[in-house]
Amino acid sequence: MTLTPSLTGRTRTPRTARRSARPRRARGTWARRAPLLPALVFMIVVTQLPFVGTVAISFMRWNALDPDDRAFTGLRNYQEAVTDPESRSALLTTVTLTVTVVLVSLVLGLALALLLDRRFRGRGIVRTLLITPFLVVPVASALLWKHALYNATYGLINGSLTWLWSLFGSDDPPQPDWLSSLPLLSVEASLIWQWTPFMMLILLAGLQSRPLDAVEAARVDGASTWQVFRYLTFPHLRRYLELAALLGGIYVVQNFDAVFTLTGGGLDTANLPYAVYETFYQAHDYGQASAEGVLVVLCSLLVGSFALRTVSTLLREETR
Amino acid sequence: MAATLAPRTTAPRAPYGPGAAARRRRGALGLLAWLCGVVFFLPVAWMVLTSLHGESDAATNPPSLAAPLTLQGYREFFGASTGVSPWPPLINSLSASLLSTLLVLVLSIPAAYALSIKPVRKWTDVMFFFLSTKMLPAVAGLLPVYLIARDTGLLDNIALLVVLYTSMNLPIAVWMMRSFLAEVPVEILEAASIDGAGLPTVLARIVAPVVAPGIAATSLICFIFSWNELLFARVLTGVVAGTAPVFLTGFVTSQGLFLAKVCAAAVCVSLPVLVAGFAAQDKLVQGLSLGAVK
Q1: Which of A223, A247, A261, B125 could make an SS bond with A142 (beta carbons 3.0 to 4.6 A apart)?
Q2: Is the pTM of this model over 0.90?
Q3: How many CB pairs under 8 A join A and B?
């Protein structure tokens, strides 16, 4: 689009005119770029430069408790971060947590979206009920799960168990301490509760954008519900599934609130963002915290490159 | 699987006939949907109910559903016994979220214009640069930001949070606004400029009506994400600029009962997001999918 006028200009105009055309063209491109620049410069300054700083600090020995002992140490911090059993377990926890939460919420979200895609009485109300978990502030929901639901002595889960058991005349109900016996699962459950509505909303929008005439034609031709889902709905839904999974993944990988509030990183539930926070906030080891931060980035780049590829197909389809 | 399922749905059932069977099945699925909705809503309902109970009624096993209702938890949230007012953190959160949303709009709308209506060359590359910054976890730049803020005296200052929240939301906003601006009919824009309409007229008459819902969706998402943020607020603020989520974490005490109080606080802090989200459910979907879903 930018090329066409200049190309035609070059073939027609004599040399003198071409010389004067060049600054005008340059001015044209800069006029196009100008509205973009503030946002671009802002992002580079606020996100890229600090990361460069992190990379630089990651090669240094620097503990805030001993600020004068600052020196270049090469890859020492990385060596420590990789060999440290706590960082390794944080890496494993991040992977398990993200994969479990994203997959389970995706499946639940799909089931709920399929349920909500049909007409029934009070559909709007049910949709509102279902998205509520996503609208509770994450820290608030983590506090709610920790104290009002999981608490071993007066939490709602154990309270309901007592009540259920007493219905059958038993006064010896199981009263597990959920957060200490199943710490990671407890964190995952609260996150799944929070992220299922997100998946459902995107998948429901996908379902509702599906061409209905094809579905009706298939129905008339005698296709079963399963066949309609397998050959029409699912292929259409695929990119929505990918989009939901990847966007959800980006947010869950970086989750801090739930781990921080529910378990305080204890009992092997510390994920990488929490580990970085702890090294920085409690151990004051700036060098090591930075090395861990760089590792987090490398991990999310793995997820991110897949995400970018998916989103790029979306973008290509749109521009076509 | 398809073969076994097909006869079941098409075969008439003797006493009811196919119509009745389908209607019953639809009714059952509707009931299931209601059940799921109630299950997902239950923790929130429990939070609200607990916030209205007295502390000793809130911490019983089995739960006392019919305990007398009281506003004591809310009075505690507003500092009845401690004298600590929740308004400074709430106002901090509100100003950080609103100001950063405003800044995001100011930066993202021109950028989206340069990525859709009069696109720069290689505009897709620019789009991916914006998105890739979202993949960069917040913790990765935390330390340099902290050190710079400490040395420039910006620690415990709302302005710092505004800048960081803007960087957190700007990529999403650029993507969303571009997808809305891409729907502005370019032929009409060209026709208008040939007819001598100036840029302000074009923006007000043609661009604004198409883009206004997009601005609403973008603002909603940016507001929610800024309001919810905890990590930066926790590390970079203290007593002066502490936000509502940070304030909320301080409600858990090691002694005594605090459940009703915490639930009341959680309800109050979540209320703005709940209201905004309920009021604009369709905008929420557009925003969450970066404008890919409309």
Answers
A1: A261
A2: no
A3: 332
